[in-house]
Amino acid sequence: MLSFDEHRPTSRVLDILELLASSNEGHTLTEIAVAIDAPKSTILPIIRTLCHRKFISLNKMTSRYSISINAFVVGSSYLEDLNILNIIKEEMQYIVNQSLETCQMGILVKGDVLYIAKIDSLEPIRLVSFAGKKIPAYCTAVGKALLSRHSRQQLHELYPQGLQAFTPQTITDFSCLYEEICLIRESNVATESEEITNNVQCLAVPLCKDGQVIAAISVSIPKFRATPEKMSLIRNLLLASQRKIEQIFSTVNVDLLTFPS
């Protein structure tokens, strides 16, 4: 919906670019008009200008428009100024702003989660943690997200001494852990309730490129604030950020996210 201070023609330009940037197949003029709720006669001059300026292009065989070279050039100039970690932190900050809960990012180092970024909630009661902290991956939501592409054999190899209990809720059975890993592959969301810290629940999503888990982000919630509505909001926020981040992963060199293992 157009807000009171937005310039309608400019908004339509941005709507068209955002629509085409999120599509692999492109869209026809009619599909664009329907998607952004604008008359074809109104957006046709915009489309023609964007084509002329090479921000979008037309496939004459299919009559579909798609994103073109100059849009990529503009986007690349942004990525040159920000490394991927900073982009992920922007998404994490948005999640915190919307949920009012702490968001963390971690990578897998052997069998542990290494937390490399954290955005704190402003709530007086919140998770106490810090970037640089390491925790066994099997008992955290972010860790389970990082393990979500591992086989049963790989899990045994990561933890040859077995799964140590940190609380009464910690999973200590490999079969139970693997069953949960399989569920995470299906739902794309990892959960954890008091498995490492009493009275704290977490949700997390893996961040993947070409089927490989690169990192994961999580949100931690004190149990007394973990209402169904709050958990649903956080799940949706995490999945939306996951889609945005993985789209960036698909277009850039993820060597920027190479960390020690």
Describe this protein with a few key phrases.
two-stranded antiparallel ribbon, 261 residues, Beta-Lactamase, disordered C terminus, Transcriptional regulator KdgR, elongated, transcription regulation, Tscrpt_reg_IclR_N, alpha+beta, Arc Repressor Mutant, subunit A, WH_DNA-bd_sf, transcription, 2 domains, six-stranded antiparallel sheet
Explain the overall architecture:
It holds the Pfam family HTH_IclR. Residues 70-251 form the IclR-ED domain. Keywords: DNA-binding, Transcription, Transcription regulation. This is Transcriptional regulator KdgR. With 261 residues, the chain is α+β, with helices and mostly antiparallel strands. It folds into 2 domains: 8-79, Orthogonal Bundle (Arc Repressor Mutant, subunit A); 82-257, Beta-Lactamase (2-Layer Sandwich), CATH 3.30.450. 43% of the residues lie in helices and 20% in strands. The chain has helices at residues 8-21, 29-36, 40-52, 69-81, 84-99, 141-146, 152-158, 174-187, 228-249; strands at residues 56-59, 64-67, 102-109, 112-119, 134-136, 190-193, 200-209, 212-222. The strands form 2 sheets. Strands 5-4-3-8-7-6 form a 6-stranded antiparallel sheet. Strand 7 (200-209) and strand 8 form a beta hairpin. Helix 1 (8-21) packs across helix 3 (40-52), helix 2 (29-36) crosses helix 3 and helix 5 packs antiparallel against helix 9 (228-249).
